[in-house]
Structure formats: C-alpha cells, structure tokens
Amino acid sequence: MRRTVAVLTGLCLVVAAVACGERGQPSSTPPVAPSASAERPAAGDHLLTLKHNGTDRTYLLYAPPGYDPNRPSALVVALHFYPGAGPSMRELAGLDAKADTDNVLVAYPDGVGGGFNALICCGSQDDVGFLSTLTDHLVQTWNADPNRVFLTGISNGGDMSFRAAVEGTGKFAAIGVVSGGYSGKLTTAESYVPKSPVSVITFIGGQDRYASTFQTGMRTWQQRLSCRPSPKASGVPGVTHTVAGCADGSEVSVYTIADMGHSWPGAKSGQLAAPAAGLSATDLMWEFFAAHPRKA
Questions:
Q1: How confident is residue 14, by pLDDT bands cut at 50, 70 and 90?
Q2: CB neighbour list of residue 195: distance below 8 Å, 6 or more residues apart
Q3: CATH number, domain at 162?
C-alpha cells in the first residue's frame, strides 16, 4: 500500500509547514536543469544527464576542491524523499561538507516524477538499473572507487536504498537509511536479500507513524542474513542503538530516536530537518561508510 497523505480536490493540507506527499513528505523544489556543457571531471558542481532506457535522467554531482580525476575517490549517492529532487536532499543531508574533508564524490539523482520506484512507491522506472548505470558511469568517467560506493536516502529514497542493496548486486558496499524501511510486497520472499555483503546503518524515529514497520523490516533483514544484534550505548538520552554482525560478513547498525518523527536527525536546515535529535545521522553514517568498504 502506498504511504501517502490523502489529497482532496487537488489541494494539500499544510500542517506545521509540512505539505503532503509519500510518507507525509513535503513538496520539493523542481529538479535542477542539466548543464549544456560537456562533462569534464573536475572539482565543483556539475548538473548532468545520463540516458537510461531511453530517458534522460538528471543528477547533480559534487566534486570537492581536492578532487583529482587521477586518484580513486569514494562515492556517496544520495536519494531524496517523495515528492522531491536532488537539491532538496543536498540541503538536508549536509554531505558536501563531509566530502570536502574526506575528498569524496557525492551524487544527487532526481527521481522521475519526483520519486523513485522503490519498495512501496513511486512510479515504474527501472531505478535499480539507473543507479547501477550511474555508478558504472561515475566509476569509469570520474574514477570513483568501485569498492567504496555507498547509497543513502530518506523516506522513499531510503526504501530505494534497500531495493538497490538487494537487486544491485555488487554495486554498493553499504547503505545509510533514514526514516525508510525494508517492507512491501517484494520483501515477503525469503530470498529477497543481498547476494553479496551490504552493510546497513539506519535511523528510525520513535514518533514516526511507520516506526513499527521499519523496526519489523530490520528484524526480518537481520533474521534472513543470520545477524546477531546486541545493544550498544548510544551516549544520548532517548536514543537506543544496536549493532549486529551477520553471517555474510556485513554489519547492521540501528539507531532509534524516541522523540523524533519522520526526519533526518541532526540536519540543521532543509525539509525534514531534526536539529535537536541529539545525534547527527550524517556524521554517524559517514563514519560507518568509511569503515565498511565492499567485501570481496
């Protein structure tokens, strides 16, 4: 069942400055138009297109000041909520500042029609194929390190991260999911798990109306991969943390923030920001990615 707020006579009811959308998401700014200039690997912002299945897919690529096309760089692909676009994810997650410090490429793809064809919704595009094609392109053209490609997303983008982790075999070393889950019809099959190790870090708001669905999905994921979760001190009141080692060599790290809703913990600006959550999903995710390159 698609998780949306009902729309009556084409109007969204705005509550607490949040407009309606998938999983209760606010509307986003329109996708950024692609640049007309030729693609040349260099530091800076690059508004680009990539044709997949006959469709021009747009994305923003950020290369930090220290980027050197002759030296392999880790890559983080960041997926927005629905309805949304790459620039809104860029503002929310604050990944560019981390990229500047560690010399990492960050890609912000735009979903078709404002969303990605994930586990619950949205659309019918082959987004797993698109993300795989995008990753291959950035490895070949921008010298992204294929062993250090990571995927993150919130809400619809978080769901998409789980789908790509399962179906995009061998592409992603780890995923970081915020307010998203492993749920829906596809996940009912016992065999619907990654065929090669993909580590997971996820952040769940205790006040999120989908919190129980997300928690159930993580238990199912860990059971199927023979993971053994154990509690760890979070150091933050109201935040619980479990860490699990899995039989395939992957790791699962789950943070539950009791007083948070459907948000990105620690984000300072942007739609869905939760600056008072007590921890930074961006910081913790970045550390997790650095510690989890792709396993052979």
A1: very low
A2: 169
A3: 3.40.50.1820
